[in-house]
Design a protein that fits this description.
Number of helices: 1
Strand content: under 5%
Largest sheet: 2 strands, antiparallel
Distance between the termini: 100 Å
């Protein structure tokens, strides 16, 4: 009895591709993670302020308490304080303006660093009491 030593006809010479799909998914997940992390770095403070405003609204507190004064024109207002109107600070050195010097409390601060240093806790809220 002689045995034939012919090769199996179903074998193919493909390169090793086991796990290739898993590696592709891992690369996609890493890229998505980098995009999300970059977006949070750029948009983090403003998103945090939005969540803080929503939380304050749900708790029933006012976002900014202002006295009954006429609404100032927006071109005179510092964009770091969107819910109130304060004049933009002059060029350096920044004047020392304290919470006692203004009539506003618990207002949103969107700039970091805060030009007038009202947001001592760096949590997006100025003149908290």
């Amino acid at each position: 009895m002689s045995r034939s030593t012919s090769s199996n006809s179903t074998e193919h010479n493909y390169p090793l591709t086991n796990g290739q799909g898993l590696v592709e998914y891992a690369i996609i997940l890493v890229l998505v993670g980098l995009v999300v992390a970059g977006s949070l770095l750029i948009l983090g403070p403003s998103v945090g302020n939005i969540f803080s405003n929503v939380l304050a609204y749900l708790q029933g507190s006012a976002i900014a308490t202002t006295p009954n004064t006429p609404t100032p024109t927006p071109q005179n207002c510092d964009p770091c304080y969107p819910t109130i109107c304060l004049p933009p600070p002059p060029p350096m050195p920044t004047p020392d303006l304290d919470c006692a010097d203004i009539p506003y409390r618990n207002f949103v601060v969107v700039c970091n660093p805060d030009p007038y240093r009202f947001d001592g806790g760096r949590d997006g809220w100025g003149c908290e009491q």
